[in-house]
What we know:
Layout: H1 2-30, H2 32-40, H3 49-88, E1 90-91, H4 94-100, H5 109-120, H6 125-130, H7 139-164, H8 167-175, H9 180-209, H10 212-217, H11 222-231, H12 236-263, E2 279-280, H13 282-314, H14 320-354, H15 357-362, H16 374-397, H17 412-438, H18 441-448, H19 453-464, H20 466-482, H21 485-490, H22 498-507, H23 511-535
Parallel strand pairs: 1-2
Amino acid sequence: MKHSGSKNRTHVKNTHYGWTAATIGLLLVLIVPVLSIVANIWNGPGESWDHIVTYLLPSYSYNTLLLILGSGIAATVLGVFPAYIVSTREFAGSKVLEWLLVLPLAVPNYITAYAYAGFFENGGSLHRAFDIYIDMMNTPGLIVVLATSLYPYVYLSARTFFSESIQSQLQASRLLGYNGWQTFRKVALPLARPAIAAGLLLVLMEVVSDYGASHYFGVQTFSTAIFRSWFSLGEPQTALFLSAILCVLVLLLIAGERTIRGRKKFSFRHSTLRTHAKLHKGWSALISVAVCGVPVVAGFFLPVGQMLWWALTHGISVESDLISATVQSVLIAASASVIAIAAALCVVFFTRWSANKTVNTLSKAALLGYSLPAVVIAVGIMTATIGPEKEIVLWLRSNGFPDANFFINNSLLGLLFAYVVRFLAVSYGPIEAAEQRQGDTLAKVSRTLGYANVATAVKVQIPILKRSALVAGLLVFVDVMKELPITLMTRPFGWDTLAVRVFQLTTEGEWQRAALPALAIVLAGLVPVVILSRRND
């Protein structure tokens, strides 16, 4: 008996070693962009680095920091006030506005930028209708675009907190004689700072990652500089150095958010009970509708309305290029979704089976892709693979395969890999949450009946996780449909998605022709927004 028990323990230990090795292998693959930047940065920058540092880097830094500051403040204002109003007040249309406020998430930043330019600029819709035009093609204009597109991240986080966590505190404040503004300023806002910071971090991640809107408005940021260094200057090392600086900036933002949340820790009793406020009418209701309605109009109805106007005035005609871009978008997004779900399942189960706390902690690094700017991921992957891939192609050509070509860089394989690295966290979240709710009772019973870890996962756990996996796949699908920088940098020649098609047409000034593919992207984006809104109700 003693010998048998020792043998079983050895088998378990070896099994854990196997899953630990598998987890480390998967982790290393998924953090290739970061490892590549760290490994190659010691090779030094490109020839233009001194010129960039002297003449251009101050401008890149100033514009990026100004966008972070301006967009952050504006998105916070646009998100927090409506969140508080719809969570604490009842007025005509409050329930409708509660979910309408999420809709701007369905409109990518670059589409909002094109629509604003077409609406406000000289010769735009506003100018033709009222002989008024506003110069939007500058940094303040870009701040408005980014803030109106991204404020729902702050809104969702704050609304959830106001609705579920502090209803009793708000009610107590009113009983003590505080009016609505005093309750908001002295009670709700201080308590909600950690939740607001969490939403604001997502806004700032999107701001530093933005390429399409910044490029179109002519605002030089780190993202546009990285893109220009790689393609226009042909200096990968310069792009690498700029990517490293941008990564440091992202880490500082994350550290700042963690600091705010770390200093403000409160314990709240979660409750679905919502305080029934009296129905507001008259001026009070009008002000509430205005505060909640302005962000919705600015972030959704204005850009979508402008796109619809262009589509109708241009004449809705389905061109062959549009059909091709749509098919390619759907194919690549569906493929990336399937791979991302498979990778997320592997991360969830492998880390559980490894039984190694250090590996489980390190495996979270695989989820950093969503925190990194898209251009950084693209540069990291291309830098890591271009050297080894070139050697392999040269060897194949010299050994009887003259037609051998690159199979990662500027290929569907590289594009899919970049998508999975970028959006793994999107698929991991719903699956990991569902797996935690599931518990380990059924898995233990299955193993007691003689099933191994893999068989237990395939026959017991994954079928239960099917719905969450489908939701995760849908979220990844739509994110890939909207993704622009990664697609522009890593796609195969001639492989144009809807996002790339919109970018190309608007760059050429063909706004009206870009309207239909832009509306297709927005329509696809509405699906996860509705799901997200329902999950937060």
